Amino acid sequence: MKNVIWASLLAASGVMIAGCHGGESAATPGTVQTMQARVVESQEQQVPVSLRSTGTVHARETAVVSAQVMGRIQQVMVREGDSVRAGQTLVVLDDAALRSQVEQAQAGVKAALNMQAAAQTNAALSASTLGRYKQLESEKSVSPQEMDEVSRRAEAAAASLEVTRAQTDAARAQESGAHTMMSYTRLVAPFAGVVTSRMADPGTMAAPGVPLLQVDQAGALQLDATVDESVIGAIHKGMKVQVAVGGGASTSGAGTNLAGTVTEIVPAADPSSHSFLVKINLPSSSQTRAGMYGTAEFANGARQAILIPRSVVVARGSLSCVYALDGHGIAQLRYITLGAAQGNLVEVLSGVSAGEKLVDLPSDRELAGKRIETSTGVRP
């Protein structure tokens, strides 16, 4: 009787165990959902290495206009944004005092000329008298003392003429200097360009060296960028540089991208920042203005990097993710760190290895834990 009971229990247990195992094997395939998607592979490629430097756009030539003489400003004939031509009058100073000096110098020249004329007449007379006395001396008609006196008077007259000539030259130089000082009361544009700053108005007292206007030369501009001393060796004159100006210099990428050329590297570093100033000529562009912020990228060789298409990246809040396939084709959501973009590709700094299969164009589908089948094959 006991044997029958034990046999019944063992048989029931075997049925239950078999039932449990049978349920698991039947449920396993049903728990993994299969979805169709395109798959791509991450690639290891060489990417260019660049040195990035920031700076400000300037005119290639800039002039700060200031007075060379003291005087009250009568007129400021331009404003910010005005275009000017070379030699155009920009500021006029009160010239009353300098005009008086010019008139005084002119009077001095006139007096010097009169003195020179009188001295020239006296010298001519003395020379004529000396000539006659020499004739009389040959005839033994004058004494040696008289001859000496006439000779000394002729020499004195000639010397006096030379003095008056020097005085005339000095008076003329003084007149020229007065005219030059007078010309300083009219400040002119040193070259064709645009007025970018106006620092004075009529009635203001102008002093030597005090800025009144700033004029930027018309034409192409340049970017003045600062480069750290540790990488200055990679930069040389004539080097082609990609420059982003305005919005293009920021992470938004909206702005103007230009191809510049290094034209000058200031040979001395700034002792406070240990950086060098590099000047980059920019092509003409209607979107570029002096004073804009710019970023220059200097090519500096290449390095190995892992790249993936931008289309495989999905956002989870502020984080970037991809769906990577394991050895069984099951998609796994993986968080990654992205680097610089390379056209339609983007560099992966961490989270993906070379040759891994990734789901392309996942959109908003939730693919984690699902088997991915490709209808079009794997795209390299």
Provide a compact summary of the structure.
With 380 residues, this protein is an alpha+beta fold. It is built from three helices and 23 strands.
3D architecture notes:
By secondary structure, the protein is an alpha+beta fold. Among the domains are: 33-47 and 304-379, Beta Barrel (conserved putative lor/sdh protein from methanococcus maripaludis s2 fold), CATH 2.40.420.20; 51-60 and 220-302, Elongation Factor Tu (Ef-tu), domain 3; 102-165, Helix Hairpins, CATH 1.10.287. Helices cover 30% and strands 38% of the residues. A six-stranded antiparallel beta barrel has the order 3-12-15-14-13-16. Strands 4-11-9-6 form a four-stranded antiparallel β-sheet, with no helix packed on it. It has a four-stranded antiparallel β-sheet with strand order 8-7-5-10, with no helix packed on it. The chain is rod-shaped, with a radius of gyration of 47 Å. The two termini are 72 Å apart.
Descriptive keywords:
380 residues; alpha+beta; conserved putative lor/sdh protein from methanococcus maripaludis s2 fold; Elongation Factor Tu (Ef-tu), domain 3; Helix Hairpins; six-stranded antiparallel beta barrel; four-stranded antiparallel sheet; 23 strands; 38% strand; rod-shaped; disordered N terminus
Task: Provide the fold topology.
Layout: H1 2-31, E1 34-36, E2 38-41, E3 43-59, E4 62-66, E5 71-76, E6 83-84, E7 89-93, H2 96-138, H3 144-183, E8 186-188, E9 193-198, E10 205-206, E11 211-217, E12 221-228, E13 240-245, E14 256-265, E15 275-281, E16 293-309, E17 314-316, E18 319-325, E19 331-342, E20 345-350, E21 357-360, E22 371-373, E23 378-379
Parallel strand pairs: 1-22, 2-23
Antiparallel strand pairs: 2-21, 3-12, 3-16, 4-11, 5-7, 5-10, 6-9, 7-8, 9-11, 12-15, 13-14, 13-16, 14-15, 16-20, 17-18, 18-19, 19-20
Helix pairs in contact: 2-3
